């Protein structure tokens, strides 16, 4: 699985470029590079459902980002300014936290099964009962719409809330008193 | 919002029907092949976004289509909750799969799963399209 | 193990953008990186070597599939991520129209 590691290295480089570059449009293009790499990695780990959704969502994300940047400005003025004390403090705090978090994640991920040998206690039941009990052949659709449909209802509510938030924030004229 | 050049408009004319049909196919075969309501809804929203970007539109038309998209989103949400409540009424459990299972690997199988896919696709597609319209297309006046 | 830690590094880059950058668009991009890292970590945890995607194509095929549960959890999270990103961007657009800058230090100064 060498290609997975190559994609991950590419994604880390592109993510670093996106955070440090001066042109915001280039930063958004780097974000798109990371997103499409994620889509290709979903195909490589046998998740075609996720790959389809990720590709289309990435396109719409970039369209929205570019629309916002076209309406405002595409130069990041904060790059290249001299560092203030609060900025230095935030970098030091970040480095401290990142070190602790990384060590904790190394400890935690050692408890997980190694890459490529997932334990499937619950999933084996879903796979065994999926076709007989629901009749659907796509097991991911069975899980999200039959076994765990209440979870999907909650996610749909979150999406509805965010749509209402965007429409309310972007309303052209406020309501008359 | 202004439209784009003649080349973009012509290509859009050719492609938009295919994109729409592909989205509908992804939704209707969501219980048999990769895809489903989420993927198909976003594809349909992408086709609508392509039309607005290529042809442009006036502020009044955008306002009207935003209202229409909100109505479609509400229809999708009500349909999804309605399927759940129908399960509660007819079989006693919220989100019970109360319809007959059908022949496996056929288009008419899976009980409520295809209908849930259709409801979610309405919701996701119309929701994302109205996000795009209100964030990118509608001109607004700032009054501070 | 190393492949999981690479996802954690991507997460930390997103956190770096959120904590230390002073441009609002960069902060939103940092949130997007965190979402990608978590989604990818879930999909990688559910992977099994040599197994197929969890879709039944024949009625009596052997059940050699990757784990479908992380995929089901991530599938909804991707669409939610787009919704939250759009909400953040609309707030950013409002702030820009009010203060004419993306720099959070400037915005703090203008507030008084």
TrEMBL record, chain A:
Top-level division of the source organism's lineage: Bacteria
Keyword annotations of the record: Cell membrane, Membrane, Transmembrane, Transmembrane helix, Transport
Protein's membrane topology: Multi-pass membrane protein
Transmembrane region(s): 6-21, 28-45, 51-70, 91-110, 156-174
Subcellular locations according to the entry: Cell membrane
Domain MrpA C-terminal/MbhE: 118-172
CC annotations in GO: plasma membrane
Location of the MrpA C-terminal/MbhD domain: 9-72
PANTHER family, sorted: NA(+)/H(+) ANTIPORTER SUBUNIT, NA(+)_H(+) ANTIPORTER SUBUNIT A
Protein's recorded name: Uncharacterized protein
Organism whose genome encodes this protein: candidate division WOR_3 bacterium SM23_42
UniProtKB/TrEMBL annotation, chain B:
Subcellular compartments: Cell membrane
Transmembrane domains' residue ranges: 7-28, 34-54, 75-99, 111-138
Keywords: Cell membrane, Membrane, Transmembrane, Transmembrane helix
Domain Na+/H+ antiporter MnhB subunit-related protein stretches: 7-128
Keyword field contains Transport: no
Recorded GO CC terms: plasma membrane
Origin: domain of life: Bacteria
InterPro entries: CPA3_antiporter_subunitB, MnhB
Topology within the bilayer: Multi-pass membrane protein
Entry similarity comment: Belongs to the CPA3 antiporters (TC 2.A.63) subunit B family.
NCBIfam families registered for this protein in UniProt: PRK08386.1
Record-given protein name: Na+/H+ antiporter MnhB subunit-related protein domain-containing protein
Lineage of origin: Bacteria, Bacteria division WOR-3
TrEMBL record, chain C:
Membrane topology (UniProt): Multi-pass membrane protein
Transmembrane segments: 27-47, 72-96
Gene3D superfamilies from the UniProt entry: 1.10.287.3510
Family, similarity comment: Belongs to the CPA3 antiporters (TC 2.A.63) subunit C family.
UniProt-listed InterPro entries: CPA3_antiporter_subunitC, NUOK/Mnh_C1-like
PANTHER family per the UniProt record, alphabetical: ANTIPORTER SUBUNIT MNHC2-RELATED
Main location, first listed in the record: membrane
Keywords tagged on the record: Cell membrane, Membrane, Transmembrane, Transmembrane helix
Listed name of the protein: Cation:proton antiporter
Coiled-coil stretches: none
GO cellular component assignments: plasma membrane
Subcellular location, record wording: Cell membrane
